[in-house]
Amino acid sequence: TIADGLFGSQRARDCLPSKSGSGACQGTVNGQLTELRDALTAAKRRQPDRKLDLMLLSIGANDIYFSGLVADVIVDHATERALFRRSGVMASVDDARSAMTRDLPQGFAKLREALKPLVGDLARVVYTSYANPTLANGGAPCPGGRAGFDIHPSFNAQPQRLAAVSNFVEREFLPQLQALA
Q1: pLDDT tens readout for residues 115-134
Q2: Contact residues for 72 (Cβ-Cβ < 8 A; gap 6+)
Q3: Which band of pLDDT confidence, cut at 50, 70 and 90, is reported for residue 19?
Q4: Which residues are CB-contacts of 151 (< 8 A; sequence separation ≥ 6)?
Q5: How do beta strands 125-127 and 55-57 pair?
């Protein structure tokens, strides 16, 4: 997310191999803005007038619980749905919409302010777009079903939930990201 990953550190999901071969893992990784500041500082030591050429930035999906929306679409059995909902692994379109209107604009504004001293002209920042992964057949929502989700018996791309997420992504989330960018 913008807060955890760009600004703040986050739990490491993968550990980089070390030269010592010890296999030790820090457990967290620095925020990407800290890493960018450090990289620019190191570059300016060698070349004082060095500026950032271009930054590609793809943000927003994690901020609106996109993986939780995916879980809401594919987890079909009531017991698993209740457990996932209770543990915070699943999110509804309403949860995503709330985060999108409540948190995303402020996060984007904070990010812009943090980038200005690093990149100068924000024209050097290119916001890359997301594709809507729920579309098929020339732009229609996927029909749903178990195809590709047969790894576990509780998985099934439920057509109504898939259509609701698809419509939210296409009609609300992607236009909101475009407006913010």
Answers
A1: 999 888 888 888 888 777 77
A2: 90, 91, 92, 93, 161, 165
A3: low
A4: none
A5: parallel
Long-range CB contacts (within 8 A, 24+) of 169-173: 169/130, 169/132, 169/134, 170/132, 170/135, 172/97, 172/100, 173/60, 173/64, 173/96, 173/100
| Type of residue found at 126 | V
Encoded tokens for 112: 């812009």
- pLDDT tens across 58-78, in order? 889 999 999 999 999 888 888
Query: Whole-angstrom Cα distance, residue 7 to residue 116?
Result: 14
Q: What is the SS3 assignment for 29? A: strand
In degrees to the nearest 10, what's the CA dihedral of 133, 134, 138, 144?
140
**Structure token pair of residue 19:** 């030269």
Amino acid, res. 117: P
Tally Cβ neighbours within 10 Å of residue 6: 23
CA distance 64 to 74: 17
CA 21 from centre of chain: 31
Pair of tokens at residue 128: 């890359």
